[in-house]
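Working notes for the structural subgroup meeting. M.R. asked for a predicted model of this chain before we commit to crystallization trials. I am recording the input and output together here so anyone reviewing the notebook later can reproduce the run.

Input as submitted:
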Amino acid sequence: MSETAHTLSDRIDTATAPARVRDYIDLLKPRVMSLVVFTGWIGVLIAPVHIHPLKMLVAVIAIALGSGAAGAINMWYERDLDALMARTRNRPLPAGRVAPDDALGFGLLLSIFSVLLMAVSTNMVAAALLAAAILFYVFIYTIWLKRRTPHNIVIGGAAGAFPPVIGWAAATGDVSAVAIALFLLVFLWTPPHFWALALYRREDYLRAGVPMLPVVAGPRETKRQMVIYTLLLLPVAMVPTLMGSVGWVYGTIALALCLGFIAHAIAVWRTADDETAFGPARRMFRYSLIYLAALFAALPVDLAVGRIAG
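Returned structure, recorded in token form:
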């Protein structure tokens, strides 16, 4: 092993500087957590059962802590990959600001606390779903799929699709068809969202040896799959309206957002496959974040409009 490799290995296995509070916050993947918290909160908010605001707040905090715990364990396990990628090499573990054992212990404690908090504050169904989401993200996605198959995002995306179902269960104590539709919405959104990122970060994944679809199957097949998934999203996004759970305020917004997502996927499809042509992929990635946030925000807006009109 070269001196440089030894230095890198030593740095990611031991902390070279005292950890700050900010470093532990970064372990929680706050950007990912923000979307998880939002979709989980919407799940609570649109459930057909009144829940006390304090109980809602605690449920959302439990979802946030569970998400952050899974993120911390993910960073602990993937610290070697993160050190090789420009996008992640300055994270607390590869940068040597947090020791691996500290990150793992932090993630495990938060996992246990978040599930117990959900069980005590809401019900066992929501707590079981939160535990399942954490375990799925850590064992199925991070440990089993991430380094082995280009389907890592397709299957692993289920972990990120749990929060609205957890939120719904926190309010109702069960899982309904609407909650399952919200699960499928996030599940189908995840692959084109991450593949857009992987297209313009392809060299990073190639360097780290992560078998993302653009690395294994190439840009052309990835773009084809992205178009397919955005087309599949359209009918799924319309399910809450077609089931009568919400009205056409949501339905109209969902239709417009889905058509925009499809248009971005087609724009990516039409670009050349060389590394300099991925401006549309970057724009699609950014649009995908707006898409999901706006889609979920439209659900309570529709219900509020319905109450006012009724």
